[in-house]
Amino acid sequence: MSLITLADAIQAGTTTATLATQGALARVGAHDDAVGAFVHVDEAGALAAAAAVDAQAAAGRPLGPLAGVPVTIKDLIAVAGQPLTAGSAMLAGYLPPRDATVVRKLREAGAVILGKVSLDEFAMGSTNEHAAQGPVRNPWDLGRVPGGSSGGSAAAVASGFGAASLGTDTGGSVRLPAALCGVVGVKPTYGRVSRSGVVAYASSLDQVGPLTQTVADAARVLRCIAGPCGEDATSLDPSGGADAEGWEAACGRGVDGLRVGVVSAWLDAVSDDVRLAVETAAAALEAAGATLHEVALPLAAHAVPAYYVIAMSEASANLARYDGVRFGHRAALSADDDLDALYAQSRAEGFGPEVRRRVILGTWALSSGYYDAYYDRACRVRRLVRDELTRTLQRCDVLLGPTAPRCAWPLGEALADPVATYHMDQYTTAANLAGLPAVSLPWGLGADGLPAAVQLHAAAFDEATLFRAAGALERAAPALPATPTGLTETP
Amino acid sequence: MSTAWETVIGLEVHAQLRTATKLFGPAPTAYGAPPNSQVDPVSLGLPGALPVLNAEAVRMAALAGLATRCTVHERSVFARKNYFYADLPKGYQISQFDRPICTAGHLDIAVDGASKRVGITRIHLEEDAGKSSHGPGGSLVDLNRAGVPLIEIVSEPDLRSAEEAVAYLRELRAILVYIGVNDGNLEEGSFRCDANVSVRQVGSDVLGTRCEIKNLNSFRAIRDAIVYEAARQVRVVESGQPLVQQTRLWDTDKARTAAMRSKEEAHDYRYFPDPDLPPLVIAPETLATWSAQLPELPAARRSRYRDQLGLDEDTLWHLCEEPERAERFERALGTETKPERARSLASFLFARVAGVLNKSDHTWADVDAGLDALAEVHDQWRAGKLSNKMLSTLLVQAFATHDDEAADPGTPAPFVAALSTARAAVGVLEVDAGALDAAVDAVIAAHPSQAAAFRGGKPQLLGFFIGQVMREMKGKADAKAVSALLRERLSSS
Amino acid sequence: MSQRPAGGAAGDASAATTVLDTATVRRAARLARIAVRDDELPGLADELERVRVFVDALQGVDVDHIAPLVHPNHDAMPLRPDRVPTSADAGALTQDQALANAPATRDAHFAVPRVVG
Q: Has A74 been annotated as catalytic?
């Protein structure tokens, strides 16, 4: 059942928040041992929140747009009273004092928080295998990765563990797992959603986004969490909140006259399944009244290296606060160890290998003698990529292309070759560098029965057009089986 | 063969801004609170906490720039300065690096009557670190001060002596206090100074190897440290040793500088623009509004007092060091602005009254409502209606009664009431000009030989005459008035 | 960041020369305060050098006269009023909250080993 259908049913009194929450918890109990999406289930808190919604409904008081809807939260986002691990041994046992802004807003909209879901450590990864709690499995094939870093979020939504999840997207971390798990994932415009209370990976790239089963569901969740926040100097809304009200309606508006750019170069290095998905999606948009325009984005080819240099550099500073002094893992020390030994040992033990790699490389890229050739140069390339996309999105309303180069791949493959895995981000990082909104949505199953997906980009703060195109595509897309194939095999 | 050496000094001042909350977070900035009680997620560097810049800190930094004739930039940028230390919660300090808020200003100082212009390279905004206290078992960290807003004011290496350095710091401190951005407190560390000191042969235009001197928490320490360090550097160079560029700490007790103990490692702060903070933009109209808010600065006030009141430089400096002091003085002065009265009133308030006040539990704020009455007391004393002894009795009594009066919350201005009671109790001398004249004439007439001796060059006999007149007046006369009259009569005939 | 000294070593960095050798990686790890054992260094340097070669594609892009971009959608930042919020979940933390997650505290301070060993 979609989020909106469920919310409407709770509003209409045909079901209750408690029933919806119990149902979601039952599915978690039945399937999460196999999937491994959750790192913390807050059964008592969820049932209490659901009971509060039901009491509100019984008293005839108006309900919020997400009233009674069970949701999950990527464990990179603070929920007061629940552990916040960022998928890292570094933060084992850490309890945040306050809700992140997005969590407070979800609660205000009536959402029921089921718990925290898994991720690649500090959101660094594309497969959800770099997680202190162990890998998450793809619900469509338990031998494959769900994608990352919001792998727990995508697997949870695909498995029916709640109707929505909040993920974060720094270089594709919402869209990539959404694509691999057959759900919708939106990366909003940079600045659209507050980052306050969200553990930072790369501050100028990070953005919280919803993962849901339908495009309209994502529009509704995004409306609830969007807006400027006094605790994040990069959050803003040029429209003053006016356009968010129209996003759900935009999903049904149709694409007559919409100019769709198709990035032909983005189909050169993708699997047949993915190529077919993008081609049929383009044809579907044209059939629905849009015009297709072939576009070239030569500079976007440099997005991935620029992204990695910038993300690692920012991360090297963002992760400096994990030093074993005020919170987090502290190494056992001997009597003659000094403060520097405490830092170096605690950080070596608390961070996993991928985090260590990125922090050390980022430190190097900012260091004297290398700053100009790496960090500074990457920021200049970032401007080239941003300007090229901005120019292109003046000629086209949206850009259509793949999300990932292929469907879900087997567990273990990426661990063997980290650099090869960086290529999985080649179609997603440009949106982060340029600060644009983008969405990944399912496009049926590929030849081997795994979900395929396509991606749309729109201009900054033009989520309305993004949802318009995505809604039309969703109506034309081949249907997915109601239950992911990996779950039907388990009792 | 001795060479003439010249000391070259540049100063870096860290001044704490008087905001209610921290530079990037909402925690209060109170001094002396229990440890780790003035913190928020931002100043603790908790996961997910983000900096949001305090608007008032920006206004204060811009005011400091305007008051020191800097260019206040429409756009400036915050950067992360990366290093690990126990009292630096995030592992980086948010500061300004290549795009500070203010650049290229100056202020004028005067040493031994010669005026000099000292360049200000830049003023930038940054957050303070916390406080580590070191003990045998390790260090304890209090983060109350972490994130408190600072401006760092960097001077050009234009200073050539410890005296010039102190004059610069006193002037800068007075300016910051005048414009209300800093409380000027060196002891609590809200106005801190590091000195970059080098020496070179007179006539050379090449800068020598410099040492940065830290732990300077009084003007005295700054002066002594610079003198010591310059002499040390000259000794080293003259002995043919190489000077090592290093950070040295001033030790007040041992009166010497010593190299700071640290690991042998070059710093690499890896400055880069803080991705959490887009550029700081100050609209030209906003800056114009702030510029219009600038009060009269100490130099302008000193020059006004010098021209209008004819006060000497020491009095000018003392009066104008704190804006409240000057404002009190002006209120007490009123419209009677003759130089003699102005000088006398300044010394009356800030020597005599201050002396009694400092021994009491009063503050100047208590006195404010009684300034007019105090000015009246001053005028009576000056006119001879109060003897020195009476004045001192009066003041002691007025300040002593504070406790009782203050205990009654219904009393609107306790000091005013106490002063009034004390004045009534002490009374004033009924100076009968005719009786004093007659007494003086009678005493001179009765002691002709002494009068002749006085005129013949024995001024010490004045005391004898004063005593005789006071006896004649039965003590009901002011010694100053008696003395003045005697001098007049003894010299005129 | 114009005050920064120009990078010499990196300017002619190419895939053909090893830039991230063990000495460079040891230095970076030391700056990052991440302990790396000597026997781990060669393997780590190898992994990092492969990433460096991957991102070195940037060296071929003509970025002359292109200014760095840090904030894609922002020209200026909003400021915060200088007020202590009254709401319990917005302003200062209590001392207990501040110390709650600390691995070691003493007398309401965070406790750490001595600074220089």
A: yes
